[in-house]
TrEMBL record:
Cross-referenced InterPro entries: ATPase_AFG1-like, P-loop_NTPase
A Pfam family: AFG1_ATPase
GO CC, any one term: cell division site
Superkingdom as given in the UniProt entry: Bacteria
Keywords: ATP-binding, Cell cycle, Cell division, Nucleotide-binding
CDD domains with a match to the protein in the record: AAA (cd00009)
Gene Ontology process terms (BP): cell division
Descriptive protein name: Cell division protein ZapE
Protein source organism: Arthrobacter glacialis
MF annotations from Gene Ontology: ATP binding; ATP hydrolysis activity
Length: 350
């Protein structure tokens, strides 16, 4: 038994399970407070989740079906502080950093990250990169060896992870472990609840403007000449060009953020420092190579998860973003999240 497991068991004796008081009624009250009613697919998943206080779960289903909402309500209802909810992108980045600090030991890195955690919630779990897949296998095996309840949400069933047919077979042993260790629950909803956004706070209170006319800039109190001004911001030890970076606004041109070699760790760093963003000169994804388009999709994931207020100024309306075979992976999730924004093709005052 590792030090982590001995330490966990000692503390566990003094911390009874905080999950026993969570009932379906907790979810019903949360739904009513947000102006909707739990549908049958959601109720079935919630019932299975509440049926056991010990098993881990893998919740999957189409975009907007309520996976993240269920996870968030569940997480907030846990009375203990010995819990952690994190976007998978962010945890993956933190784990890489911790491994470097701990002499390339994934076990010691997880000890540091999860020392005070009984329940770990991963939102938006997915595997697309073959290089990441080997590392994810090691991480999951270490997690499953620990007395931690793992709850995962994903747009993919376990056997849909790492879908590239050239590499999928390599990931099958990991898929088998996931299916063995976690109870897999499908949410079969067909409605995208994100489209019901009231645009009152966080990411959904932002705006998507197209086609980016001078009049639209003026209505925002901005100048199209401002988009050509030059400043810089430091991220991960290097400089990125920006239009503006201060306590009021972080303004990037699309090309400076997504056509340079940036990644999710950079977006997380910037989102921690700036709560109000503007991204201008966004081209149609049909004009882009896959890498810049994928960076944009990863950026949206981070901004959405961090509930950053963003104004997007683009050449095309949101629905045209998906009209390309070269678009990013998980384009449906990106479109679903962007569709929560207020979007205007002419004046934002109308």
């Amino acid at each position: 038994m590792s030090w982590f497991q001995r330490n966990w068991l000692t503390k566990r004796r003094h911390h009874p399970s905080p999950l026993e008081s969570i009932t379906v009624e907790v979810f019903e009250r949360a739904a009513i407070s947000e102006g909707f009613t739990i549908d049958e697919a959601q109720r079935e998943a919630i019932g299975a989740l509440m049926a056991s206080a010990e098993h881990g779960f893998y919740l999957w289903g189409p975009v907007g079906c309520g996976k993240s909402w269920i996870l968030n309500v569940y997480y907030e209802a846990i009375s203990s502080s010995r819990k952690r909810r994190v976007h998978f992108h962010e945890f993956f980045h933190q784990l890489h950093q911790a491994i470097t600090k701990k002499g390339n030991s994934i076990e010691r890195a997880l000890d540091e990250l999860l020392n005070e955690v009984d329940v770990l919630c991963f939102d938006e779990f997915h595997v697309h990169d073959v290089g990441d897949s080997t590392f994810i296998r090691r991480m999951l095996l270490e997690l499953f060896a620990r007395p931690i309840r793992l709850i995962v949400t994903s747009n993919y069933p376990p056997d849909g992870l790492l879908p590239n047919p050239l590499f999928h077979d390599m990931f099958l042993p990991t898929i088998e472990v996931i299916a063995e260790k976690l109870e897999v629950l499908e949410i079969r909803g067909t409605r995208d609840y994100r489209l019901d956004s009231e645009h009152t706070q966080g990411f959904s209170s932002g705006v998507w403007l197209s086609p980016g006319t001078a009049a639209q800039y003026r209505e925002l109190g901005l100048s199209t000449h401002g988009a050509s001004s030059a400043a810089t911001v430091t991220v991960s030890g290097r400089l990125l060009n920006v239009v503006q970076a201060d306590h009021e606004l972080l303004w990037f041109r699309f090309s400076d953020l997504c056509e340079s070699k940036t990644g999710s760790s950079d977006y997380l760093d910037l989102a921690a420092r700036h709560q109000t963003w503007l991204i201008s000169d966004i081209p149609s994804l049909t004009e882009l190579d896959r890498e810049p388009a994928q960076r944009f999709a990863n950026l949206i994931d981070v901004l959405y998860d961090r509930q950053i207020l963003v104004t997007f100024i683009a050449t095309a309306p949101i629905h045209e973003l998906a009209a390309t075979s070269r678009g990013p992976l998980d384009i449906d999730r990106t479109i679903s999240r962007l569709s929560q924004l207020r979007h205007h093709n002419e004046s934002i005052l109308k």
